[in-house]
């Protein structure tokens, strides 16, 4: 954050990655939504972006243009101007944005402001990393990949604006470190622990069936190795290993995690639920710092 007046600050972010879907236009849309999401996670309003592009010289005709068109489509939806960018030659296509937004310095949402006994709320179901890997392995039904794409294409704008309305202070988005990794970021920064009701965690259709070793990507395995400490799996015998792995699944263009006081939680959820394109779910609560970070009930 760069503060340049009492009521305005600039915030910056960047993100890009390789395709997770076959359609270049949809890939461009998802990459654009994903990059802009960091601004929303801070409670800001994005307004300017630059393309970050890596393309091979042997891509099919129109492929690059379709990716860029997809990025512009979602940028326009977010009222973001893409003012150019930079492209390099790379054998594997990659695309994303560097994004600038603005936020009131006193209203910025961070990972460090959670307090004890607050509700933990998420705004998209998880599991799209497993879906994407299964898609590459030709193991997923099209109806499941379409549902996953629907959520990846949804801007986090409405959820962020609603959180500002309720003066929520704690937020992050769920991306490469999965639900557990990004929740841990909040818990570590805020010096609290969490109790999560695993049955309340929203999971994309088809993911429970697809959560098998062949559909666990490298990112998921890395998350498991780095993050599976200070976690208590309550009722372990009732939580299948395959379901635990979904908690570590890296997300592309995932939802937001909020921590907010109980007296506004239900009102916040009710307000977000008015938008039929959004998904919102309370999954647990923060508690006093303990000898564990996360306890799944």
Known CATH architecture of the largest domain: Alpha-Beta Complex
Structural domain count: 2
Catalogue the unreliable spans.
none
In N-to-C order, the SSE pattern is: EEHEHEEEHHHEHEHHEHEHEE
Per CATH, the superfamily of the largest domain is PurM-like C-terminal domain
CATH topology-level name of the largest domain: Phosphoribosyl-aminoimidazole Synthetase, Chain A, domain 2
* Largest sheet features: 7 strands, mixed
CATH hierarchy class name of the largest domain: Alpha Beta
**What share of residues are in beta strands?**
25-35%
Structural class: alpha+beta
Summarize the topology.
Layout: E1 2-5, E2 8-17, H1 24-41, E3 45-55, H2 63-77, E4 81-89, E5 94-103, E6 118-122, H3 128-136, H4 142-152, H5 157-165, E7 170-173, H6 178-190, E8 193-196, H7 207-210, H8 218-227, E9 231-233, H9 241-246, E10 256-261, H10 262-272, E11 281-287, E12 294-296
Parallel strand pairs: 3-4, 8-12, 9-12
Antiparallel strand pairs: 1-2, 2-5, 3-5, 6-10, 6-11, 7-10, 8-11
Helix pairs in contact: 1-2, 3-4
